[in-house]
Amino acid sequence: MDKILRINVGADGGPEFKTEPLGDYAGLGGRGLTSAIVSKEVPPTCHPLGEDNKLIIAPGLLSGSAAAMSGRISVGCKSPLTGGIKEANAGGQPSQMLGRLGYAAIVLEGKPKAKSLYKVFINKDGVKISEDNSMCMMGNYDVVDKMKAEYGEKIGVISIGPAGEQKLAGASIAFSDMELRPTRHAGRGGVGAVMGSKGIKAIVVDDAGCSVRSPANPDAFKAANKEFVAGLRKHPVSGEGMPAYGTNVLTNVINEAGAYPTKNFQWGQFDGCEKISGETQAETENARGGEGSATHGCHRGCVIRCSGTFYDKDGKYLTKQVEYETVWAHGGNCGIDDLDAIAQLDRLDDDFGLDTIEMGATIAVAMEGGVAEFGDAEAAIKLVKEVGAGTPMGKILGSGAAVAGKVFGVERVPVVKGQAMPAYDPRGIMGIGVTYATTTMGADHTAGYAVGSNIMGTGGKTDPLSPEGQAELSKNLQIATAAIDSTGMCLFIAFPLLDQPETFQALIDVINGFTGASLTADDVTELGKSILKNEREFNAAAGFTKKDDRLPDYFKKEPLGPHNITFQVSDEELDQVHNY
Amino acid sequence: MDKILRINVGADGGPEFKTEPLGDYAGLGGRGLTSAIVSKEVPPTCHPLGEDNKLIIAPGLLSGSAAAMSGRISVGCKSPLTGGIKEANAGGQPSQMLGRLGYAAIVLEGKPKAKSLYKVFINKDGVKISEDNSMCMMGNYDVVDKMKAEYGEKIGVISIGPAGEQKLAGASIAFSDMELRPTRHAGRGGVGAVMGSKGIKAIVVDDAGCSVRSPANPDAFKAANKEFVAGLRKHPVSGEGMPAYGTNVLTNVINEAGAYPTKNFQWGQFDGCEKISGETQAETENARGGEGSATHGCHRGCVIRCSGTFYDKDGKYLTKQVEYETVWAHGGNCGIDDLDAIAQLDRLDDDFGLDTIEMGATIAVAMEGGVAEFGDAEAAIKLVKEVGAGTPMGKILGSGAAVAGKVFGVERVPVVKGQAMPAYDPRGIMGIGVTYATTTMGADHTAGYAVGSNIMGTGGKTDPLSPEGQAELSKNLQIATAAIDSTGMCLFIAFPLLDQPETFQALIDVINGFTGASLTADDVTELGKSILKNEREFNAAAGFTKKDDRLPDYFKKEPLGPHNITFQVSDEELDQVHNY
Residues 6 or more apart from B533 whose CB is under 8 A from it? Predict the structure, then answer.
């Protein structure tokens, strides 16, 4: 995994590619690599859909190896949604495959001369790029089926749907899962729009004939990996809760805590919560005769297995087991308590290539603006279908919550840096509010998941309803996360890592065993800091200031029920988060 | 003119008002007053459509007096379009009337408890506010007719159309003209949306029984005014060009200079220019049997008389003589060379309450995004009608060019601080580019009209195609403009003022004769600086930095034909403009 595939989409006769060594970027992977390339090669004030922006797809440092949980992939660019740097992270199969094919990154650059769509095929023999306008406005499910018909069943597919082709700021990039379905998405920040602006519809990878990447020190690697897996399995979150109910185990937990944003962040608890909880979802899945939950990862090598499959009432595959954030965004946040409707919305988002968080948040803003009634699932489905159809309404919604707020004259728009907040109200879980405000990414829970400490006590308990210690907590989590996002490891390893020092050490041993390095915990922290520093510098050069590291005013003015509490972390504390 | 009318729209039973003395604001008028109130009373980070924003309508210091040209009015608020401070300036009758009624400002504040529309009636006996939901989504022409039926023919009307009610960021506020038609608009920055957010549909003023405001020193005032008027009449621009052809005299001039933004700023000259020029327009108006041009001011006391009336092919009133900026925005910028179509678009904008500059710029961006073909006048009319009808497409377009650019995935969006550029390409007239970039208002030609010096040589000639001296020029003009915008004087007095020192002195004598003060030219400069300082501080507190004082990157990268030149004023020079 020592080369970069650069595809210049601006060449006269259509995209041209070259392969080059990692060079200055050697030793970097995942987010560390995407953010380094964006920082070095993309002018911060360029237009996100223009010639100068680049789209970087990078497996993690351990992707393609036998390390457990190492199949995450990073997508980086200047974001059309936030105007700042972006790393969107996804599961699925392509990361491991690209790792085995030896690619540390794919970089799409330049601007197409003509309006055509292209597909890229990568296998052990090299790279082929061909025009294919038959896929114009095709949904991700059909794209994957078409690629399967052309290239066989053993491929992985990275693709965009109609949203990406329309260059909408809510567009995602789909990564196919173990069943070769486009269900894992680099969702946030409009990365799909940037891929659309490059005219690349699909990247197909086939690692047949490639081996698992070999560790520098096989015995040490193997032993460390065993210890690491044992640590994941013994922790109650990664070993029990998530396998049993998936991420949607959180619905009841966050609702109970009074921090479940309901009807566009108007209230902290949702009446219909029980009907859409992870427990109900697992029961439904089991009753419908599928394999249920508890058996399923999103990529080979996963041992947490929080994923699953959602079947419709007739027992027919509809979508993956819907994730907590999606159940919330299309569910409680829109006042919708119908699990089947939510699953349909998830399927539509995956097919059109849309960020489910941004879409749910946007529909809730539109509902507040009078476009539909809260709780009207049929209206929500109709609205998402408009995005796929490319109607004016669809284009508004596909552009995200900030734009919808402007267009519909809505005052309460829960965004930071133009990106919609996920499924935790920052008034009820103040730690996550600090992350929303200060991460380089725009409101993003994964950038520093303070919910773990605030609610579950992971890594030590902090009071979610007090500002105390939240800035320090978020800071440490943001640093650690930036490092983890570089390894290709799934972020869910953080629960055992924070609670079990021996599992954290095991991870470091896995890295060292694989790379032959001798990193310490401090080195990992330094790596995280250096990534954040790069990202912060890019954003500053793009025009961001500390005024952008703020929640919208109303979170400081309107108390959230039932706790009747406002967000209380001071601006001064927010400004200290990145002081390291 | 020593009192402020404050209307609190958030009272339980509907809007309540009180009248209070000017207090700390004594001595301020027009833009000086609106910007002072916004600076002092509006939290810079508040939501523009929320409870904390205020809408201030303020006649100038001389409005209501017998001073020539003193009928301009300022509207201030935090702008929904730019997110910064806003002063939008309009002609029409209400300024003189409010001055005579003794009101230095009307302030709308608070947030309505219920969704109702109100009208405000102000005469010598006081203020009456009444609910009137029959005007819901009514166009400005019907609103004025209705108010005329209710309050008689001698009123002035300040109103919003469907765009303001929809709280669209392109919404204007209409001020009725001498014929009691809603043709003069505080157009820019979405001030109509703020009025809409306050639930006030119309403010009707009737100055019957009020006298012209008396000067402190009648003889000195009268003599100075006479000298001032003589100065205006002898200058070729204010005395000949503008009365003969209106502002549209500029079409040929700017086109000839190669700085006429054509088809969304793709080129600097327009093939169809001759068909929509001021000369052709005047000929058309005269041929259709109206009173023609050259006879008409937008308010009593105007001696330049650049306005006129546009009749349709059947000799029926259609709209006012269309202004240069509008002819450009809906004409050349959209590739449209049909004067009747452009006049129809102007009429629709006035009726719906839309900024013609923002609308034309937005339709051109939409055309570049594939929504319609450049040059398709019928499509443009249909698109503007969608704004009035409140369709999703209409809501996109009514939200302005920046939003349309996002929604339609367009890269070339000619905005600064979110506000669309007017009718001068900053590559072909670099001085105006400095003003677009650095004014507190977002791209705005009126904030520092460097076109005068660059093209016409007003106040000394500068080369439009060279960066040299442009920053200094724009700086001085911005300072002078802020002062003039405080007097209630029409900005077109600037041509003689800059060329004829005796006319500038006459204006100062008019002010001193009226107020009894003894201002010098330096005091006027200090007033301008202090206003700009207030405005800059507000914007900084709202989050603006020097990165916001920039043109979009493409003006520095894409040369404009036929001169094949890019914008060349350096960032360092831009950053010096407000260094005083």
Answer: none
